[in-house]
Amino acid sequence: MIGLDRIRAARILIVDDQEVNIRLLEKILAREGYANISFTTDPREVRELHSRDRYDLILLDMEMPVMDGFQVMEALHEIESEGYLPVLVITARPEHKLRALKAGAKDFVSKPLDLAEVVMRVHNMLEVRLLHQETRRLYEQVLADQKAQARLEFKLQEAMTKVVHDSDEPQGIVAKSDAMRKLLDLAGRVAKFDSTVLISGQSGTGKERIARLLHEKSTRSSGPFIAINCGAITETLLESELFGHAKGAFSGATNDRPGLFEAADGGTLLLDEIGEIPASMQVKLLRALQEREVRRVGENKSRRVDVRIVAATNRDLAQEVANGNFRQDLYYRMNVVAIQVPSLRDRREDILPLARILLSDAALRMKRKIAGLSPEVADQLLRYPWPGNVRELENAMERAVALAPGERVELDDLPEEVRQAPVVRHLDSGEARSLEEVEREYILASLERNGGNQTQTAEQLKIGSATLYRKLKSYGLIADRAASGSVPTDE
């Protein structure tokens, strides 16, 4: 409840063209302890007065010359951002009452005035008004506290991540392996120039993180970094997203809208899944890259843009060019500097440090105390080939944090496919084994575990059935296993 002192301290405005009515209302309100009362006989002043003083209650007579009460409420609506009109209507005409409430008034009193009723309705309206303000204040305080807590958690997470990382590794990237150290060296050298970069790698390897690193280490780091997944947008919308559109260019284009090229001006634009762009859009994109200017959909004029382009793909674009699916001139324009992000199984030294960082991040988000990985879990993480790469490892660590009953991740907390990864001999007795040998052994073990069913094996390995078939054929596994009759021809 709102205290009586707060209610009596409320700001009240009386609006009536008859000064005698104002004096009467002012007298009965003052007698009830209301001390902050203003008045005007000119309804044209109300908008300006309320804009300046923000009254808690406006006693408004509806029948006045020059400007009636409905026009006053219409003017008040223009300055009330919350849409709340603190208006108590005074009228002698019954038909005005419902109309006034529909126009935004909160209550009404009838003429001739019942002074006790006026006092009661003023008190009730002010109590509701002040409760509304207090609720809004508390809500805003809760939001502010939540934002402060989120900032605190972010800083804590940032600090924890920095502790886990080596000081010479960029934020969010682990580079214990030679492959990643070479990649970071190349990225550091090319970042300072505006050359277009094509980042290739399997899905989930962290291509966008490398693109962000290029931006952060460039002279454009103070500018925007904007990423778009070209494969997730239809051809029609993609052109509008990249280049913008003019008002009326197509159905639903109600305003002029800049595209992402313009939004990224002075910064970096990442064109993710560049290999998915349709042929017609490839021509328009090539022109934008060559001319360094864009033309919004529905406009004839071109606009200059200063953008550094980074593209990413999980496809073999050279093969796509050979197959006629990707323009050769666009490929050469994109492939000025090529960066190949290795798959996670090709950077085994990074798996455990990366797993611990991802585990720490997930534990912090879920507010769980997780000390680390058991030796058995660490060994299993190294055995698994991670077809989904870093993204799959991140999901596995998040799942482990959610399911771990204790303060350490155990084997039972891992996904089934990781838990059942076969024992693969590697680097034993000084004998290094090739990736092809390890992969062949893993696929063979997965086939055995699935009773020779290729469809189930492909699903477990998170690869397509056609990909599995090609690998089996190239490794000679189909002929070897078919001879024993253990591999059904289910493809």
Note down, in words, how this protein is organized.
- The chain is α/β, with parallel strands linked by helices.
- It folds into four domains: 4-135, 3-Layer(aba) Sandwich (Rossmann fold); 180-342, Rossmann fold; 345-419, Helicase, Ruva Protein, domain 3; 435-484, Homeodomain-like (Arc Repressor Mutant, subunit A).
- The protein contains 21 helices and 16 strands.
- The protein has helices at 4-8, 19-31, 46-53, 69-77, 94-102, 115-164, 178-191, 207-216, 235-243, 260-263, 279-291, 317-322, 328-334, 351-366, 375-383, 389-403, 416-419, 435-449, 454-461, 465-475, 477-484; strands spanning 12-15, 37-40, 57-61, 87-91, 107-110, 197-200, 225-229, 244-245, 257-258, 268-272, 293-294, 303-304, 308-313, 337-340, 372-373, 408-409.
- The strands form five sheets. It has a five-stranded parallel beta sheet with strand order 2-1-3-4-5, with helices on both faces. Strands 7-10-13-6-14 form a five-stranded parallel beta sheet.
- α2 (19-31) links the parallel β1 (12-15) and β2.
- The radius of gyration is 35 Å and the shape is elongated.
- Residues 157-167, 424-433 and 479-491 have low confidence and may be disordered.
How many whole angstroms does the radius of gyration measure? 35 Å
Mean pLDDT over the full residue set: 83
User: What is the general shape?
Assistant: elongated
Number of strands: 16
How many domains? The number is: 4
CATH architecture of the largest domain: 3-Layer(aba) Sandwich
What is the number of helical segments per DSSP (H or I, 4+ residues)?
21
CATH homologous superfamily caption of the largest domain: P-loop containing nucleotide triphosphate hydrolases
Order of strands across the biggest sheet? 2-1-3-4-5
